[in-house]
Each structure stands twice: as C-alpha cells, then as structure tokens.
Design goal:
This protein is of the alpha+beta class and 286 residues long. It has 7 helices and 11 strands. The longest helix has 16 residues. The chain is globular. Catalyzes the phosphorylation of the position 2 hydroxy group of 4-diphosphocytidyl-2C-methyl-D-erythritol. This is 4-diphosphocytidyl-2-C-methyl-D-erythritol kinase.
Length: 286
Amino acid sequence: MNLKNFKGKDQALTLLSPAKVNLFFRIHHRRQDQYHQISSLYQAINLSDTISISLAEEDLFHCNLNHLCDLQGNFIWQAVSLFRQKTGWNQKLSIRLQKNIPLQAGLGGGSSNAATTLWALNQLSHYQFEENQLALWAAELGSDMAFFFSQGTAYCQGKGEIIQQITHLPSTHFWLATPQFGLSTTAVYQKCDASKLTHWDSAQALSDTLQGKFILRNDLEPAAFDLKPELRVIKHQLLAMGFTQVSMTGSGTTFICFGSLETLESPGVVFYPVHFLQRKLGYWYQ
C-alpha cells in the first residue's frame, strides 16, 4: 500500500490493551499434545496497556520498559508477522507500547498486546476481516489470545481457544494484589500434576457465577505455590487482612481479592483497584 495515499486519521491508531483475570480455573488433565485441558471463566478488566500504531517508512518499536524493546520474541511483532503472512500487507509500522500490566503475573498482558495489534492492523489495512477470523489467527499465536475477541466475558475450554461468549456479568469492582516477582507460565504448567487435584464441577461454577455467586478457585495454585512458597504466605496474609475471597489468576503471581477494604498494605505487594471491562461488537475495548 502506498503510504502517500494513506491520509488523516487512517494513518494511526491508539488502543487500550486490557488485562484479563480467571474468575475460576479448572485443570482436567494433560492432553496427548502435552497441553492441559482446561475450563475457565475469563474476564477482561480495566487495568490495561496502551498501544499506538502508525504507518512508517521502516519498522520501529518503542516501549517504556527497555527490556521489552527487542523485536525477537515480542508478542506484538509476532502478531505483525502473522498478519503480514495471512494478508500480504507489508506496510512498515511504528509501534509504541506503554506497559502498565505487570509481567509474568497471570494477567494475559502479552496475549492482549498481540490481539490488540491484530485488531489495529485490520483497521489500518482496511481489510476488515471478521472478528471470528482474527480470533482464529490469534489462537495460532497463543491459547488465550482469542479470548480478547470476545465481548469481555467468556467460558473458555480446550487449551483456552474454545470460547463460549457469556452475557455480561454485573459490573464488579475488586482488587488485584500483585507480588513484585513473576512466574513462568511454562514452569507452572509443567509443575502441575492434574492427577493430584481435587475434582470440582466447572460447569456448576459457571452456573453459580451467572447467578451472582462468585466462588474464586484456581487449580494452578498448588503448582505455583510449590515453585514460589512465598505465594502461599501472601494469600494467607490477604485473607487475614479481611478479604472474603482470594484466588490466584492464571499461572500467577497476581491474586484476585474480593471484599470491601479501604486500607491496603502488604510488604512486596502492589494493589490495583479494578473492575470488569466489556466491548461492543465492531469496537475495541474502551
């Protein structure tokens, strides 16, 4: 595409790239392909990164975190490469990432960045592929990336790529508690022994949630706690502070905390007040 013919507002986009939480997370078993079979209720939240993409004469990438500026292995540039491969659109791009979502925290920041990038490129290129098609492409990059093409709430199964859209849950405010250290998603899954987990019914958990009965639970907690015993201590401290429910999200290290507390202080833990985030079909998260 000729850069000179790409004018005005079509030259650039700035979009929110939201985090997600797992309101519950069930591990069923390890599959033959070595992935785990899961059932989980995913929810987008208002804690977000910001991605700005504009047309350029050469590929450029800037980030407020210097160690994320390497293009190799970066989820954003993986999404760019995939879009170019699928469409043949090879316009050079300048991309700026303002990173606010904690890293290695179970909040899906990298996956959200990739999905947001695919959405932006679809707009900038004027190709206007259907959202379902973009979700399929996103699933090629990562199991939970397709979720972000839902409307913000979804029951996810398989590896996380089988998505059942859920009617918007009531707007809910809560806290995230993020320790100042991360965990490798791969390491947590490798440590997880599904045969030792207590069975519980994820379908019933979904039914309860849709009736407003939130019961937070995550089968990856034991593996994460084995790798980082400090996490078990932090969870006990959060409950002792007065939170009514505390559960890790994703592969950790962040905890979802339900309860009305005003004074929050725990050494080595950062607290974020958050709420559920939805999007309208045809629009990105706002």
